[in-house]
């Protein structure tokens, strides 16, 4: 990754660092600095717990939980890419970041990968609900691995192309990024080169990475809802609608916040609003996904209870062994 020199531009010099502006409201910064650390810790704990439960419990080795485990892994990466640097900025006041560090800070591939994951998970639920007799054949282990690998690779390839193009731009003027992390659009605006090609490429790749998965997700849930309506039992229908509505809430918050941040026109009056809504897909979505998709499930709750009992038993055995060793020494 390289940045072009500006020696030919006379007295213009290349900025060594970017400065993140965070929120203009100091009260908001204080509030967020108090809230973000516990939210980050809870997010990491919840997602890591899901990963451990899926890996260590044989009865959770199914396509649905395989996808949920990967989603939790993604959310862990998501939070770790954004929150630590943001917390340091809020708590210490150090808002500087190197140019190359800013490029490495781009996490767009995680957002694109999450779009693919949500589409895969909704299609998985569609097959399980609407085509249960063919589910095992249509969603075997090989297909699951291909879907997940394809999601990770597709998300990574798209952002790699964009980062390469952005890294060829020159940054010779203002170096203040009107955001609390190095998002793509604010960084491109600081370039002193023509950015039409980069912006068009980013738009095309972003559209490919979001619109098809969104259509698949919506189509899958439309099919699921149609199938739920045909359920004769009122109790079963209410339970199914409750689960479906929870999933749709997560999808709506994620895609809705993305559209507000990236589709609304770039106006100074909307900058703080966009920053606020960017918290939905960078902070709240990783927090609520484990709760909505996993921790409400009876199988996951049973696996968690079993795991905690095992850990408690191991702790008791260790304590007894420690006492025996002390008695022998004495």
TrEMBL record:
Membrane-spanning residues: 30-53, 65-83, 103-123, 143-166, 203-224, 245-264, 276-295
InterPro entries, per the entry: GPCR_Rhodpsn, GPCR_Rhodpsn_7TM, Olfact_rcpt, Olfactory_GPCR1
A Pfam family annotated for this UniProt entry: 7tm_4
PROSITE patterns: G_PROTEIN_RECEP_F1_2 (PS50262)
Coiled coil feature spans: none
SUPFAM superfamilies reported for this sequence: Family A G protein-coupled receptor-like (SSF81321)
Keyword Glycoprotein: yes
Domain G-protein coupled receptors family 1 profile: 46-293
A GO term, aspect molecular function: G protein-coupled receptor activity
Keyword terms: Cell membrane, Disulfide bond, G-protein coupled receptor, Glycoprotein, Membrane, Olfaction, Receptor, Sensory transduction, Transducer, Transmembrane, Transmembrane helix
Protein localization: Cell membrane
Principal location listed in the UniProt entry: membrane
Membrane topology of this protein: Multi-pass membrane protein
GO CC annotations, alphabetized: plasma membrane
The UniProt record lists the keyword Membrane: yes
The protein's name in its UniProt record: G-protein coupled receptors family 1 profile domain-containing protein
Organism: Podarcis muralis
Taxonomic lineage of the native organism: Eukaryota, Metazoa, Chordata, Craniata, Vertebrata
